[in-house]
């Protein structure tokens, strides 16, 4: 009997730690090499991992409802409750100065410039990308030569998405968005203008599901990939920031994303055999939603608090990073014990299996 693949949980754990680190004040302020390395692949990694969960069977409507329950419900719950709290106690819960109507309209619009907690833009977009990817898989289910067709379609979509990435970003709108307090277009609602970038990476994940399930740590291949990844960063200076509609050189940035994903998966395949790494990283990976929801405000507040205690930015940044990961884990345990909080923030439908199952001959497979 197959069992769940712990390497995928570990990869998600590494990925969400990179997200928190990428939003750390010290990293964002400098926007140096560490920033460029993280941003060059951390979002494509999450899209790719999401693709590993996709199946071309089942009802599309039920899939969409399941994804809405897991992604849209906590998005709206957190931001709507935040808006209500700000209306009742504006000094205690400050958000960007705006009218209540503009705030709630921004939540519905769902892009980073329209919401109070920027990282949450990812949730409605991930929902839309997942549904589109599943629709593509269902539509091509009986297509002759399907894998090759999917590879070609994914590459064509990615090329199109990179080519038109800035079409709907910060363009003049006149008075069209005055009702939301905006003068420039903040992307399409739910960042739909990024669908042709996110969906291809999901399709790549689906197509490579079996190789990922059987992946082993190969030192020489990993060393070569790491050298190539480092060389691309050293000599090109390219990175991406999908939130700001930056992709960089299409070839170099795509190579960097692919190499970064491979390195994380390879390291995860190695760490799954060592409980001292497997258990904490898998725990962090399983809590990635709560960490995404709350790390931004937790890390920011802890950094601000500790900056009054110490002038060592590296130390303060490291402590706030740890808090941004650890405190949402504590919150998750509290949420699980509170029925109504769990109903608001956690999926009510059975969770998807954590990645492709281990093949029968995989290392560590139970007989």
Main features:
single chain, 367 residues, mainly alpha, two-stranded antiparallel ribbon, 16 helices, 2 strands, globular, disordered C terminus
Q: What is the element layout, followed by pairings?
A:
Blueprint (H helix, E strand, L loop, with lengths): L5 H17 L2 H6 L2 H7 L2 H11 L7 H29 L11 H10 L12 H18 L6 H18 L5 E4 L11 E3 L8 H13 L1 H5 L5 H18 L13 H22 L3 H12 L1 H20 L5 H25 L1 H7 L22
Antiparallel strand pairs: 1-2
Describe this structure in words.
By secondary structure, the chain is mostly helical. It has one domain (6-345). Helices cover 65% and strands 2% of the residues. The protein contains 16 helices and two strands. It has helices at 6-22, 25-30, 33-39, 42-52, 60-88, 100-109, 122-139, 146-163, 195-207, 209-213, 219-236, 250-271, 275-286, 288-307, 313-337, 339-345, and strands spanning 169-172, 184-186. It has a two-stranded antiparallel ribbon with strand order 1-2. The longest helix has 29 residues, at 60-88. The chain is globular and about 55 Å long. Mean pLDDT is 88; it is low at 352-367.
Summarize the structure.
Helices cover 65% and strands 2% of the residues. It is mostly helical and 367 residues long.
Q: Taking strands numbered 1, 2, ... along the chain, how are they ordered across the largest sheet?
A: 1-2
What is the molecular shape?
A: globular
Taken together, the total number of domains comes to: 1
* Class based on secondary structure composition and strand pairing: mainly alpha
Helix content: 55-70%
Low-confidence stretches: 352-367
Quote the distance from N terminus to C terminus.
9 Å
Q: Kindly report the average pLDDT value.
A: 88
* Beta-strand proportion: under 5%
Largest beta-sheet characterization: 2 strands, antiparallel
Helix and strand run: HHHHHHHHEEHHHHHHHH
Gyration radius from CA atoms, angstroms:
21 Å
Q: Helical segment tally?
A: 16
Q: In total, how many beta strands?
A: 2
């Amino acid at each position: 009997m197959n069992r769940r693949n712990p390497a995928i949980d570990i990869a998600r754990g590494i990925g969400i730690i990179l997200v928190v680190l990428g939003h750390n004040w010290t990293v964002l302020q400098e926007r140096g090499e560490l920033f460029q390395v993280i941003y060059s692949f951390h979002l494509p990694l999450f899209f790719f991992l999401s693709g590993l969960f996709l199946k071309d069977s089942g009802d599309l409507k039920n899939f969409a409802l399941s994804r809405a329950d897991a992604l849209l419900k906590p998005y709206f719950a957190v931001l709507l409750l935040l808006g209500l709290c700000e209306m009742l106690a504006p000094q205690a819960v400050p958000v960007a100065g705006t009218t209540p109507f503009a705030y709630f309209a921004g939540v519905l619009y769902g892009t980073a410039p329209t919401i109070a907690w920027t990282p949450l833009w990812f949730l409605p977009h991930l929902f839309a990308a997942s549904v589109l990817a599943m629709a593509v898989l269902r539509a091509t289910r009986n297509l002759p030569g399907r894998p090759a067709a999917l590879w070609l379609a994914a590459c064509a979509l990615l090329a199109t998405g990179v080519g038109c990435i800035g079409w709907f970003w910060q363009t003049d709108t006149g008075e069209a968005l005055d009702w939301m307090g905006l003068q420039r277009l903040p992307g399409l609602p739910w960042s739909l203008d990024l669908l042709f970038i996110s969906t291809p990476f999901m399709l790549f994940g689906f197509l490579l599901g079996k190789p990922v399930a059987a992946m082993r740590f190969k030192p020489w291949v990993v060393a070569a990939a790491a050298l190539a990844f480092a060389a691309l960063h050293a000599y090109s200076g390219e990175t991406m920031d999908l939130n700001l509609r930056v992709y960089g050189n299409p070839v170099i940035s795509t190579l960097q994303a692919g190499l970064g994903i491979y390195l994380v998966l390879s390291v995860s395949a190695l760490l799954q055999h060592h409980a001292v790494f497997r258990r904490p990283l898998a725990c962090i990976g399983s809590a990635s939603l709560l960490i995404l929801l709350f790390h931004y405000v937790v890390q920011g507040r802890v950094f601000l608090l500790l900056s009054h205690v110490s002038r060592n930015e590296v130390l303060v940044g490291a402590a706030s990073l740890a808090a941004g990961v650890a405190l949402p884990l504590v919150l998750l345990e509290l949420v699980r014990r509170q029925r109504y909080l769990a109903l608001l923030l956690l999926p009510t439908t059975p969770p998807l299996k954590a990645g492709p199952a281990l093949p029968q001959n995989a290392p560590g497979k139970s007989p």
